[in-house]
Specification:
heterodimer, A: mainly beta, Immunoglobulin-like, 4-stranded antiparallel beta sheet, 3-stranded antiparallel beta sheet, elongated, B: mainly beta, 5-stranded mixed beta sheet
């Protein structure tokens, strides 16, 4: 018997998960012409009101110096590679589940970004990118003129 | 042989509690992806455990079972709320059965950038033991 105790909020997570699994079944074009994987790493997006977003990604085992993060207009691109394990005759693999190779992921942002103030850090295998919204794109309050 | 990032590898695999003990920590539990390879003198286990560091990893050897547990603290950016999620955050746990050829006292573990590397040294070839039969 499988008993699941889940709060209702994770029901959405569950539905998202099913949707991703369905997409995965039908979508095979996740590799670009150069063989780089386009849907790695998985990302989470955190938003704070109108002021900006934080994107986090799980990227264990990456050399942060080889990670390239670019913001062009409203597109954020993360690219890099994960080293493959040594392969020679003395090494015998029993299990190989961790992926390796090149990856490029482009993310369409919801707003233009203040490129000078973008910050990224890499800690414990997790990449965090702070994306402040561009000043000129901030919502402005419009005053309604009243006629006397 | 070459298994590159494909879609099935992107998704973290969650452990659904069935016959194992109920958890008291209110987080999800994932199975870390591992590579296991063998060299002449040792067996190496490499596991992806993003979000865990040396203080939050527990490695236990009990008889022939090697248990890797890693606690991951969900670090939420202050004042930000999660608006889109492709991966879940939770702890990692995975169990392995060790064979007799491993020197259980010589196991070494190193963690770097969310990757745990375990070295399980093999014991030298045990000399065949001959048991003398005494006549009563």
């Amino acid at each position: 018997m499988v008993l699941r105790r889940r709060s209702s909020s994770s029901l959405w997570e569950e539905m998202d998960k099913i949707q991703r699994e369905m997409n995965r079944l039908f979508d095979t074009t996740n590799v670009n012409r150069f063989g780089a994987i386009l849907d790695f790493p998985a990302i989470n997006v955190w938003t704070k009101g109108d002021t900006g977003q934080v994107i986090t990604a799980e990227l264990p085992g990456i050399n942060p110096d080889e990670l390239e993060i670019k913001v062009i207009g409203e597109t954020l691109t993360i690219s890099g590679s994960r080293p493959s394990q040594e392969q020679n005759d003395d090494v015998q693999y029993h299990r190989q589940e961790r992926g390796f190779g090149n990856f490029v992921r482009s993310i369409q942002l919801q707003f233009p970004v203040e490129t000078d103030r973008v910050e990224a850090n890499y800690e414990k295998g997790i990449l965090k990118i702070w994306l402040p919204r561009a000043e000129q794109d901030m919502p402005r309050k419009i005053l309604v003129n009243k006629k006397a | 042989m070459t298994k590159e990032f494909g879609n099935p590898e992107v998704e973290k695999q969650e452990i659904v509690e069935q016959d194992q003990a109920e958890r008291t920590r209110e987080t999800r539990l994932y199975i870390p992806r591992v590579d296991i390879y063998e060299t002449k003198d040792a067996i190496h286990v490499v596991a992806d455990i993003p979000g865990a560091d040396q203080d939050s990893i527990d490695i236990t050897v009990d008889k022939n079972t090697l248990l890797i547990e890693a606690r991951v603290e969900a670090e939420r950016p202050v004042d930000y709320s999660l608006t889109y999620a492709e991966y879940g955050i939770g702890d990692f746990r995975r169990k392995f059965t060790l064979s007799n050829e491993i020197d259980q006292n010589g196991i070494e573990a190193v963690v770097k950038n969310g990757v745990l590397s375990l070295t399980l040294p093999k014991v030298g070839p045990s000399e065949a033991q001959k048991i003398a039969v005494k006549s009563a």
